Amino acid sequence: MNVPNLLTLLRFALIPVYVAVFVSDVTNHMKWAFLVVVLAGLTDILDGYLARKYGQVTTVGSMLDPLADKVMMIVVILSLLLTGHIPWSAGAAIFVRDAGMIAGSAYFHFRGKKTVPANWMGKLTTVLYYAAIFFIFFEMPWARTYLWGVIAFSFVTTSIYIGLFLALNREEKKAEDRGVPAGDNGENHAREA
Prior knowledge:
By secondary structure, the protein is mostly helical. It is built from six helices and no strands.
């Protein structure tokens, strides 16, 4: 177990911490809960940086890192949804997209398909969601409108990811048809840890 993967596990551990702080009676609990989300986001940045810098990108990290991000986001969105900070329709749109990405990723991974590496679109979507959460936690009057813009953008990036996934696996299939072993076509398709 390397340091980037330990940071990913720490991000999983921060999920119940977030919930405990969010539902607590502590003064400014919403702001403290947001700080837990920020801490989780910082571990995400740090684990990816360390994995790339020190060549510690692993298959485990490639699966756990986006899962930790998605689970944290789902818990945050669910907490905001259940407390009336965001509308049910926005929550449903976010859950449909994220559940589809998690289920699709797991399904295709276990079927031996290649997954698309994290790229700037996915990272930008995450940053935009964090900004939306910030605006909601700090009760900005236009936060819901901004959230809907981020949701729309996330569906666009998901469509692009699906296109990239199909192209990647089509190329992999062509390489196999030419007699090149799977995963040995000279390209590195490992996801960032």
